[in-house]
Structure to design on (92 residues):
């Protein structure tokens, strides 16, 4: 039986390679809108981040998220991401 390869992506916060399903995808759509992609299938340029606040803070502080998406991330989206990641941390 063939072993299925698990796709891995690098977190823009901690710079670690992790399985794609463990990470949260943030996408810049062709229209220039930046949003959280819960399905992982939206069109556009994507960046992956661990579902914890520390990685998000590192990515924002180092402007890695801006660089990965080739756009400046609005503060409203950063606060929305913080709320979603905080909810994920309390659940898990």
């Amino acid at each position: 039986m063939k072993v299925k390869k698990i796709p891995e992506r690098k977190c823009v916060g901690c710079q670690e390679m992790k399985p794609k399903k463990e990470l949260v995808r943030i996408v810049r759509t062709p229209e220039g809108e930046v949003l959280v992609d819960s399905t992982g299938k939206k069109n556009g340029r994507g960046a992956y981040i661990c579902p914890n606040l520390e990685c998000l803070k590192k990515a924002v502080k180092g402007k890695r998220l801006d660089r990965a998406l080739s756009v400046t991330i609005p503060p409203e989206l950063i606060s929305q991401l913080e709320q979603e990641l905080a909810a994920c941390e309390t659940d898990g």
In short: Residues 8-91 form a domain with the Hypothetical Cytosolic Protein; Chain: A; fold (CATH 3.30.1230.10). The first helix runs from residue 53 to 61. Helices lie at 53-61, 64-69, 75-91.
